[in-house]
Protein: DNA-binding transcriptional regulator, FrmR family
Amino acid sequence: MNNKNCLCGQDNSADVRVSHHDEKTIKELVNRINRIEGQLRGIKGMIERQAYCDQILNQIASANAALHGVSKLLLEKHMKSCVKEQLQAGDEQVIDEVLKTIFKMMR
Structure:
């Protein structure tokens, strides 16, 4: 799958799945992850400074929500490209793969 819109394909050189993100998606995902890293460093600092537990818990909830947002964006791109293409190619095994991933995300 060499379609630049497809996020997950086969790397022909090693039969390993790789991502094929467009530049806009990569930039958005990286920016979100960078913000989450900053949030986590802030949480660590709060713990080291012995901030009030409720404040730390609120920041953890915020970081969890941000990470969940990254997951939702990536799942959306995956469904609209790779999964769609695999289903069109007759590969229904992708349904089980996506369900397994969604169930993990729901834990």
Residues 8 and 75 are 11 Å apart (CA to CA).
